[in-house]
Amino acid sequence: MPDQQLGIVMTLLSVLMVLFTGMIRAQPGDLTVTGLKVEYMSNPVGIDEHRPRLSWKLQTRQRNTRQTAYRLQVSETGKFSADGILWDTGRVSSDRSVHLAYRGPDLESGKRYFWRVQTWDNHGNRSGWSDPAFWEMGLLTPGDWAATWIEPGLEQDTTRPQPAPMLRREFQLDGNVRRARAYVTSHGLYEMKINGQNVGNQLFTPGWTSYHNRLQYQTYDVTDLLSSGDNAVGVTLGNGWFRGWIGFSNQRNFYGTRLALLVQIEVTYADGTTELITSDGSWKASTGPIRMSDIYDGEVYDATMEKKGWTNAGYDDSNWTPVRTARHGKVHLAAPDAPPVRKIQELHPVEILTTPEGDTVVDMGQNMVGWIRLRTNGPRNHIITLHHAEVLDKEGNFYTENLRAAEQKVTYILNGGGDEVYEPHFTFQGFRYVKVEGYPGELTKDDLVGVVIHSDMEPTGHFETSSALVNQLQHNIVWGQKGNFLDIPTDCPQRDERLGWTGDIQVFAQTACYNMDAAGFLDKWLQDLEADQREDGAVPYVIPNVLGENAVGASGWGDASVIVPWTLYQAYGDERILQQQYDSMKQWVEFMRERAQADSTTYLWDNNFTFGDWLSFNSDASDYPGAYTDKELISTAFFARSTELLHKTAVILGRNEDAMRYTGLHEAIKDAFQVEYVTMSGRVLSNTQTAYLLALQFDLLPEDFEHAAIRYLLADIRERGHHTTGFLGTPHLNPVLSQYGYDQQAYELLLRTEYPSWLYPVTMGATTIWERWDGIKPDSTFQDPGMNSFNHYAYGAIGEWLYKTVAGIEPAEPGYRTMAIKPTPGGGFTHVRSIKETMFGTTASEWNFTGDRFSMRVEVPVNTTAEVTLPNAAGKEVISGGEELSDGNGINTSEEQNEDLVLDLGSG
Ligand code: BGC
């Protein structure tokens, strides 16, 4: 922001500050308990956590409210009468309302447990009991599985995509069904139907994990799908990640060549007797309309080959093939910790165009991930083809080169004779534009619907400003997350890649946790990281690792093993994630230490391949070298960072010996870094923005050198007029500038619209975050198609700074038990509004300039406190709730700190 504008802001600030909070006076007695969650889920069915953690939120209109006690009851029946109660904590004096671990009697396979909570607060109020919630256990031991693995007995050439196998069986139920559960998993993907109806609404089941180590199964309540008499179950299997094409080297069958299925349906009759229907040798197999399906390439669906009624009883399967039974083991089966992938929303075409080359192309208006639901009506055997692309080229033609080898092509062969509606199955596409070939009759916007799919995470963040461009940037960040949080955190959703690149999520995790509840999603992925981590501690480039044993150990990438758990701990106060990942974190640090010391006695990690500050600003001018940061410096910087976080983790977990060891190691790395890379005047080798950012953000410099370093950093930004950072440096750019008081420079970078900048893609019409600063160059030509995704979240890591600094919402204690609300007016914004849903409830920060007034509105969840900073308000007239600010009514203390006024606020 230009100086002049900041000046005006200061003048405005000097006139009047107004603070709004939830300004409702004491309303005793309305304390209520809501939002009951078990392991980040509401009423989960089929978990395998033996001591699940329970969390709840409190609501009241009374300000400054804390929980002083709780009572929690767990019952097996849903009735909370004395004899039905399994665990009753009694009244416990405690402010604990999140992550309270169940400590009652052992939980049993397949059982449902109901629970409710009552609380007391510091005003002497007692809530009523919450509405009961529940959780249900999955199958906890391999012995609980009576089912046998089966494989379709079909001859298939697995060097190429094959028709999707269908497996079926019929069964009789003799009596009314009171309760029924289906436990299901597969090699490959599965879609299951019972009596013609879908089982659940989850997609891409059983999800993608390190299959040989951990294979998820799903639990479904199928009570309503079954009835007394004849029933049938049918399952279609897709290649998916298991044996489809995965990775960029044309590799198929990574996890195996054969698809397989494991199903166990447990029925309880009205009279209490039970019956099991399982996968076994009695099932039969065939193929049908899905002639080919692959994650990258799309699907060929021949509707003339549909087998009507095959998932209903009475279907004639006499010409189907018997299945083979198989021994795939059950010890590695695990219940999901992450939310499933689902259809989340639908988009409608904004325009149908004819390109200069004559193609019919539908513009969905948004770069999205999922597929097209197509409606059509035409002759039998007629073929419609849909091609998917993210962008049109300079001339306005359909452009697919950046998809590399991924076809993203969906072919539908009509059945004929009426309206047909079709959506693909075991594939997804990343696209904004759809080229339609062979549509019978006139194509209208009503014939296509964009079905957006992703992991069903609860949205927990909102950020808006008075700048339309910045709002579009935030929109693009969120859509980058939607498109790439599809069971695992991927780099991109469109080309022949879509892999769980560790470096990308290392830089984006903080932002992700603001936007959505990503705890369960990342927890699951971290378990696979640990499973695929090499014995010597090396972390693969991608998780699940499909690139091989030696694609491991890149700094900035492997550090996801430490930085992502640490991020979850900060965002959700989840100490168990630190416990769970501790060995993995430690092994990664030890791997780095061993490598660093392998050929020297110092602590410089300078002998390993790494990607470096990937895709940093790249100039063609030969005298413009200022973006390339020495990779060895980067490696040692991350070695120090991960060691520091491991040390902090060891302290939290009470692992004292390790704490000592890693604080010592951290100091030694820091010393080595300074000797090798820092000059006596505070210059950091490479003299690039990223070098300074890592040195400052990771606290690698002697204290009295920091100001020299920030000056060099600022000088470089000023001289070039823009940032030069890549994947590893970019997330730290604005945070470091703000940390050292250079908010104005940070705002200037945020608001720059020329290349390179965050807003440049926005001005070029981007609706997601691009992989490169110049994916589309200023002359409208494209960057290198070998590496040019238009939906890559890494540079969206600026989102953290938007929430944390611009709106000013940040956890002061892990999990927002206490929070800091410290907005940073600037950027010429007249309005900023942000909401963050925490484990405790909603926190909000809003600021406005209206005329000569600066007003702030904050919301602090019950059972938390906030340190709220009113910027530049020291010595000014401040009004709160219509009256001059004074302590009381939720404001515990107020204190001037330099230019600011800092309030300690209770909830409200
Ligand atoms: C991916 C990146 C990834 C990188 C490693 C690329 O192909 O798309 O996002 O981190 O490789 O440098």
Short description:
The protein has 908 residues and is α+β, with helices and mostly antiparallel strands.
Principal-axis shape: globular
Q: What percent of the residues sit in helical stretches (DSSP H or I)?
A: 10-25%
* Separate helix tally: 15
Radius of gyration, in Å, reads 29 Å
Give the number of DSSP strands. Answer: 48
End-to-end C-alpha gap: 33 Å
**Could you tell me the mean pLDDT?**
94
Structural class: alpha+beta
Unreliable spans are 1-15, 23-27
Bound molecules: beta-D-glucopyranose
Strand share of the residues? 25-35%
The largest β sheet comes out as: 10 strands, mixed
What oligomerization state is this entry in? single chain
Task: Summarize the structure in words.
By secondary structure, the protein is of the alpha+beta class. Helix content is 22%, strand content 30%. The strands form ten sheets. Strands 22, 23, 26, 27, 28, 29, 32, 33, 34 and 35 form a ten-stranded mixed beta sheet that branches. A seven-stranded mixed beta sheet has the order 36-41-42-43-1-45-46. The longest helix has 24 residues. The chain is globular, with a radius of gyration of 29 Å. The N terminus is likely disordered. Beta-D-glucopyranose binds next to helix 4.
List the helices and strands and how they pair.
Blueprint: H1 3-15, E1 16-20, E2 32-38, E3 45-47, E4 53-59, E5 67-75, E6 85-88, E7 92-93, E8 100-101, E9 112-121, E10 133-137, E11 149-152, E12 165-173, E13 177-187, E14 189-194, E15 197-198, E16 215-216, E17 218-221, E18 229-238, H2 240-243, E19 260-269, E20 274-278, E21 284-287, E22 290-294, E23 298-302, E24 321-326, E25 333-334, E26 341-347, E27 351-354, E28 360-377, E29 383-389, E30 391-392, E31 398-399, E32 409-413, E33 419-422, E34 429-437, E35 448-455, E36 461-465, H3 468-484, E37 485-486, E38 488-489, H4 502-515, H5 519-532, H6 560-572, H7 575-598, H8 631-652, H9 656-677, H10 689-697, H11 706-720, H12 730-739, H13 743-751, H14 759-763, H15 798-807, E39 809-811, E40 818-821, E41 831-837, E42 842-850, E43 853-859, E44 865-870, E45 878-880, E46 883-884, E47 891-897, E48 900-905
Parallel strand pairs: 1-43, 1-45, 3-10, 16-25, 23-32, 40-44
Antiparallel strand pairs: 2-4, 4-8, 5-6, 5-7, 5-9, 9-10, 11-24, 12-18, 12-21, 13-17, 13-19, 14-15, 14-18, 19-20, 21-24, 22-23, 26-35, 27-28, 28-33, 28-34, 28-35, 29-32, 29-34, 30-31, 36-41, 37-38, 39-40, 41-42, 42-43, 44-48, 45-46, 47-48
The structure holds beta-D-glucopyranose.
Beta-D-glucopyranose binds near residues 501 and 792.
